Amino acid sequence: MKKVILGGLIGGVALVFLTYVFLITKPKLHNYEQLKTLPRKKEVILRVENHDKVSSMSVKVLQEGKEFLIFEGKPRREVKLTIEPKKLGLKEGKGEVLVELRRFRFLKDTYRIPALIDYTPPTVNIIFAPYAVMNGGSGAVRVSLSEDASLKLKVREREFPFYRSGQNAYFALFALPVDFTPKDTIQIIAVDKAGNTTNVPLPSRLKRKRYPAYRIELKGREKSLIPKLSTLLGEEVSEENFISAFKRVNEEMRRENEEQIESITRNSEETLYWSGRFSQLKRSKVVSVFGEKRVYTYGGRKISESYHWGYDLASVKNAPVEASNDGKVVFTGFIGIYGNTVIVDHGYGLMSIYSHLAEFKVKKGDLVKKGQVIGITDTTGFAFGDHLHYGMTVHGYPVNPIEWWDGRWIKNNVLPALKPSTSNN
C-alpha cells in the first residue's frame, strides 16, 4: 500500500513538473501581427515570453515554394528585425511569415502569419496647388493617388486632413503660422496599407507678409480697465494688484480661451456650406488687424504681450452682425476675453468667429445664410468700445480673414482645389 501511495506521489510530482515545463513555461510570441504587411522597409520588434526556454528561433518568409531567411539564432526577450523584401528577392503580392521557436531539441512552436508584400510607395500627383501662400494665411490643395492610402498635409507640427473629392482625388485646406518662413516646407504625406510612405513638398512660393507690432501704455488707464478685470476674474481688482490682474487676464485667461476656441473649431463637418467671398461687417472701420503683436507696458516697462487673431471692426453702437457666409452654428456662449461669441462652421475645417456681442440671434445647431443677423455688437469680454472681433480658423488654427473677403483670391486659390468645375459666386 505504501508503495502504491509513494508511486502515486512521484507520478503526481512528475505530472506537475511536466505541466510546468511544457505548458506554464511554454514560450509565447507577441507582436507577430506586425508581420502581416511587409513594405519597402519595416522595423519589427517581436517579444518572446519565456525566451530563456527557447534553444533557437527562426523567422522566414515563404513565397512560391521558396524560403527567405530573416533571422535565426538564440532569441532574447525582444528580437529586433529589419525586413526589406525587395533586397531579399521577394515579389510583391501574397506570402507567409513562418516563425519557429525550438526547445529541448524535439519541441517546436510554430506561428504562420499570412503576409502582404508591397514595397512600392503610393504615387501622389498634385492636381492643384496655389502659386503662392501667405504666412498667417490659408491654402488649398488637390491631389490624386495611385492607390488607397492615408493622406495628410503637414506644416511644421501642424497636420491637416484630406477629404475625398471624386475618384482617387482628395483636397485639403491648411493654415500657415504667421512666422512661417521660406525655409519651412509644406509636405503632403501618403502612407499605403503596407506602410510605404511618400513625402511630396508643395511647390507653392511664400508671399511674405509683415504683421504690425504696437506698444500700449497702461499707466493712466487703470480706472477704465479695473472694472473689466474685476468682472472677468470674479474678484476685486485695485490699483495695488492691477498689473498682476492684467497679466492673469491677458496671458492665462487668453490662453484658456484660445484653447477653448481651438477645441470647438477643430470639429468641422464634411459639408461645403459656403459659396463666394466672405463679407466684412457692413459699414465698418478696421480698428485692429490679424496677427498684430501687442506689447503692454506700465510706466515704460514691459509687463505682458499678446497676439490678435482676428479683425476688430467698429460700426455704430449695437450694430447688427451678419453671418459672413452660409454655415451651421456650432457655438453660442461666453468665452472670457472674447465675451459673447458665435462660431459658425462653413465645412471641411473652415469656421468664422464673432465676438464681443451683446446678444445672440441664433442658437447652436441653426443653419444660417450669408447676411443673416446672428448677433449685435457690444463691449462684452475684454473689449473697450463697441465693436466686433471677427476671426476665421482652418482646422482650429487662426488665419487672416482678409483673404476670404477677396472673391478673386478664393476663385484662384481655393475653388480649383475643392471642385475644379466650380466658379465663383
Write structural notes for this entry.
There is one protein chain. With 425 residues, the protein is an alpha+beta fold. The chain has three domains: 2-117, Immunoglobulin-like (Sandwich); 124-207, Immunoglobulins (Immunoglobulin-like), CATH 2.60.40; 216-399, Distorted Sandwich (Glucose Permease (Domain IIA)). The chain has helices at residues 2-24, 85-88, 222-233, 242-265, 401-404, 407-413, 415-418; strands at residues 28-30, 37-38, 42-49, 56-63, 66-73, 78-83, 93-103, 107-117, 124-128, 132-134, 138-145, 149-155, 158-161, 163-164, 169-175, 186-192, 197-201, 205-207, 213-217, 285-288, 292-298, 301-308, 311-314, 320-322, 327-334, 340-347, 350-360, 367-368, 373-377, 388-394, 397-399. Strands 20, 23, 24, 25, 26, 27, 28, 29, 30 and 31 form a ten-stranded antiparallel beta sheet that branches. Strand 14 and strand 15 (169-175) form a beta hairpin. Helix 3 crosses helix 4. The longest helix is centred in the middle third of the chain and has 24 residues, at 242-265. It is elongated. Residues 13-20 have low confidence and may be disordered.
Which percent range describes the beta-strand content?
A: 35-45%
Please work out how many helical segments DSSP would assign: 7
User: What global shape is seen?
Assistant: elongated
CATH superfamily of the largest domain: Glucose Permease (Domain IIA)
CATH class of the largest domain: Mainly Beta
Q: How much helical structure, as a percent, in the residues? A: 10-25%
Count of extended strands: 31
> Which CATH architecture of the largest domain is right?
Distorted Sandwich
Q: Predict the CATH topology of the largest domain.
A: Glucose Permease (Domain IIA)
Kindly report how far apart the N and C termini lie: 103 Å
Specify Rg, calculated over alpha carbons: 32 Å
What is the residue-averaged pLDDT? Answer: 92
Note the quaternary state here.
single chain
